[in-house]
Amino acid sequence: MSIAERVKSVSAWFDSHAAAADIDESRPRHIDVVRIVPFLAIHASIVGVGWVGWSWTALGVAAVLYLVRMFAITGFYHRYFSHRSFKTTRILQFVFAVMGNSAAQRGPLWWAAHHRHHHTCADTPEDAHSPVVHGFWWSHVGWFLANGNFRTRLERVKDYECYAELLFLDRYDMLVPLILVVSLFMAGAALAAWAPQLHTNGVQLVIWGFSVSTVLTYHATFTINSLDHMWGTRRYATADTSRNNIWLALLTLGEGWHNNHHHYPSTARQGFYWWEIDVTYYVIKVMEWCGLVWDVRPLPEKARTASAG
Fold first, then answer.
1. Are 22 and 2 in contact (CB under 8 A)?
2. CA angle 236, 237, 239 (to 5 degrees)
3. CA end-to-end span of the chain, whole Å?
4. Helices 56-71 and 90-101 sit at what angle, rounded to 10 degrees?
5. Which end of the chain is more exposed for a tag (fewer CB within 10 A), N or C?
6. CA gap 225, 160 in Å, rounded
7. DSSP assignment, residue 233?
8. Cα radius of gyration (the chain)
9. How far apart are CA 57 and CA 86, in angstroms?
C-alpha cells in the first residue's frame, strides 16, 4: 500500500463521506486494515482490564452504557430510522441518534440504509450479512469492515436527507465516540480526586465504560445478523432464514425475535406474545405514554396469526 493510499485510509477515520470516494468498491470484500484500525484498537484495548483492575463504579458505568446504547441502536437506529415504526420530535431524534452513534456502529443513516437493503434481499447473494450465503464470520463482522459496505447509501434513506444534523453525524461518525472517551476519562479523573472511596479513575472508566461496553454492544448486535439466522425457532415461513431466539432477545433488549420481525417488520413490537420479552418495545411504550413518541405502529392481530405454526 502506497503512502497516498494509507493517507486515504486514515482520512476515513475522520470524514467518512469524503473518504467514500476513495474506497475501492471494485473489491467489495476487501478489508483495508489501516481503515479499520479504530475498530481493532477498541477490541485490543479491553486487555487493559488486567492493568486497571475493576470497581463497582466501573462495572456500573459499563452496564448503564451498554443498556442505554443498546436501546439507542434497537429502538432508534433499527425501529425508528430503519423502519419508521413510530414518530418523535426532531430534537429527540437527534438525541438518540447521538446515543446510537456513541456505540461506534457508524452513523444513523449508514446503519438504516444497510438495514433497509437487508430486508429487500435477505439471505440472497445481495444480502451483505447472510450467514447462509457468506458464512458465519462474514455475516457476524466481516461485512461491517469490508470496502463494499463502507459508503452510506443515501439513496436508500432519502427521507432523512433533509436533516443536516443527521448528515453531520453520519459523515463524522467517529466524533461522538471520541467525545464519550474523553468524557469518561474526565469523569473518572474527577471521581479519583473527589470520591476516592469509589476506587475508580479516568483510565479505568475508559476501559470499562467505553472499550468493554462497546465490544459487548458490537457483538450482541452482530449476533442478530449471524446467529439469529442460524439458531432458533421459526414461527413464520418467511422467505429468509430468520429465527426467534430468546437468549439473543434478552441480550439485545428484544431483537432476538427476528423471525417475528421479518414476518412483519413495520411494527414497533418484535415480541409478538406476552411471554416474548421485548424490553425495547416496553421502553418505547413508556415514551409514548410520556408524549415523547407517538404513532407507534401496532401489531395487527391478523399479522400475528397469519401462517403461524
1. no
2. 125
3. 54
4. 130
5. C
6. 24
7. B
8. 20
9. 35
Decide: 259 and 235 in contact? Cβ < 8 Å: yes
CA 90 remoteness from chain centre: 20
pLDDT tens for residues 17-62?
887 777 877 888 999 999 999 999 999 999 999 999 999 999 999 9
pTM, to two decimals: 0.96
What is the per-residue pLDDT across 106-140, written as a single tens digit (0 to 9) for each?
A: 999 999 999 999 999 999 999 999 999 999 999 99
User: What is the predicted pLDDT for the residue at 7?
Assistant: 66
**Distance of alpha carbon 235 from alpha carbon 230, whole angstroms:** 14
Nine-digit cell string for 305 = 396469526
Between helix 175-194 and helix 90-101 the angle, nearest 10°, is 80
Residue 61 CA to residue 138 CA, distance in Å, equals: 31
User: What is the rounded CA–CA span in Å between residue 199 and residue 291?
Assistant: 40
Q: Report the sign of the C-alpha dihedral through residues 239, 245, 248, 250, in that order.
A: positive
Q: Which three cell numbers stand for residue 80?
A: 425508528
Between 175 and 5, residue with greater pLDDT: 175
The type of residue at 126 is E
User: What phi, psi does 264 have (nearest 5°)?
Assistant: -145, 80
Taking CA atoms, 296 is separated from 288, 289, 304, in Å, by 8, 11, 17
Side-chain-facing half-sphere of 155: CA atoms under 13 Å: 2
pLDDT at residue number 51: 97
The dihedral of CA 177, 278, 227, 110: what is its sign? negative
Rounded Cα distance, 180 and 183, in Å? 5
Question: What amino acid is encoded at 219 in this protein?
Answer: H
DSSP state letters, 234-260: -SS--SS---B-HHHHHHTTTTTBHHH
